[in-house]
Design the sequence.
């Protein structure tokens, strides 16, 4: 009798673990709350970069063939809109515009506003998600991926370009912001 109840307990426990594993497999890897927190942190961190770069460095190019600081940041913003629109299904307010080439965005004040607006768009996109929506597949260029993966790629992209701007800031003789993981 003791062995039978032991086996029943083990079977019930294993079944419970399987149910939890199946539920976890269906759930997104990252919660909306965590994504929102990460995007808010990224926005604040990028603002620190914009604040740190002196006005005379906004249009600085280390070499003629690469983007200026402003163009790097505007590329980041343009991608925030593109990725955010793809992930959320919302209309991209910058669709068809080449932000990197917009002369009116090349002052520090206008640049900062444009970048912060792109993060607000992304934050709204993330906050409008549900776990079910994150799991949906969308087409991005020739690829199909979940909305969650689109958001992960967007986060990676903005991190990459903000990181490139570290060198621009250093080349202007200024210490860039410290890492902001949390």
Sequence:
């Amino acid at each position: 009798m003791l062995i039978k109840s032991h086996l029943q307990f083990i079977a019930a426990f294993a079944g419970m673990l399987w149910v939890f594993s199946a539920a976890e497999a269906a759930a997104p890897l990252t919660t909306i709350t965590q994504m929102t927190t990460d995007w808010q942190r990224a926005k604040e961190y990028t603002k620190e970069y914009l604040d740190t770069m002196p006005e005379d460095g906004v249009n600085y190019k280390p070499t003629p063939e690469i983007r200026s600081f402003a163009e790097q940041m505007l590329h980041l913003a343009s991608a925030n809109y593109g990725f955010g629109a793809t992930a959320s299904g919302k209309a991209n307010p910058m669709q068809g515009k080449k932000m990197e080439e917009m002369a009116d965005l090349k002052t520090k004040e206008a640049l900062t506003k444009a970048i912060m607006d792109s993060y607000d768009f992304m934050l709204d996109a993330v906050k409008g998600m549900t776990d079910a929506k994150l799991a949906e597949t969308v087409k991005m260029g020739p690829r199909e991926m979940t909305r969650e993966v689109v958001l992960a790629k967007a986060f990676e992209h903005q991190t990459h370009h903000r990181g490139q701007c570290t060198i621009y800031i250093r080349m202007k003789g200024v210490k860039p912001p410290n890492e902001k993981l949390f």
